[in-house]
Amino acid sequence: MTSRRQFLVAAVGIGLASGAQATPESMREAMRKVTGGAPVRQGRVKLDLPTLVDNGNAVALGVTVESPMTPADHVKAIHVFNEKNPLPGVLSAYLGARSGRAMVQTRVRLADSQTVTAIAQLSDGSFWSDSVQVTVTLAACAGDS
Amino acid sequence: MTTARTIVRVPPSAKRGEVIEIRTLVGHTMETGFRRAQSGELIARDIVRSFVCTYNGAEIFRAELHPAIAANPLIIFTAVASESGTFEFRWSGDNGFAASASAAITVT
Predict the structure, then answer these.
(1) Host H or E run for residue A6
(2) Model pTM above 0.80
(3) A21-138 adopts what CATH topology?
(4) Domains plus CATH for chain B?
């Protein structure tokens, strides 16, 4: 019979074995790769994400950026990052003046309650961001569903 | 090369200069590469890596996808309807995955 202690040790072992996980540090690292160390300011970006998520397997995510989207002043790219999925990157979208609006929507997986961040790169070289703290009740990647 | 079901929604007609919404979806499991089979082995990653949209041959939107994108990747974006013509959509990914779709638009 398995004792409670043995069970706990085994459970921790399984947890560690499945271990690859992004961390707030690796998210910042991934962001630095995109920004090249340039300052990222809060604002102009709106990250649409429900704050309470039932099912982390498919979560509607939308990013809009305030921008006139003219050839002289437009959003070049929108990047989305997360803290606790196995990898920090989620999506990188590249747009331009022909997009008309700085908007992208998709569906993402969230492995845990965490902070999701969107960064927009503008044609003048500045970076803007928005973050949302989400609570996930049923995580993606939890079981072999 | 794998074929996959694709769904794209582009308005059939638009006024010149109008901003239109384009919705695209491709059938794909987006296997993350982090899940384990019952035998305990990792299931190899198999995802759609990139999506490109061209409008009369010129690229107007591109996206790089990561395993954090849900199965059957849905991507919604916008474009300025500048001239009549064709939107072409191309997805590519692991294991030589490639899928494409196109949609015509009449601009008045």
Answers:
(1) helix A4-17
(2) yes
(3) Immunoglobulin-like (2.60.40)
(4) 6-107 (2.60.40.10)
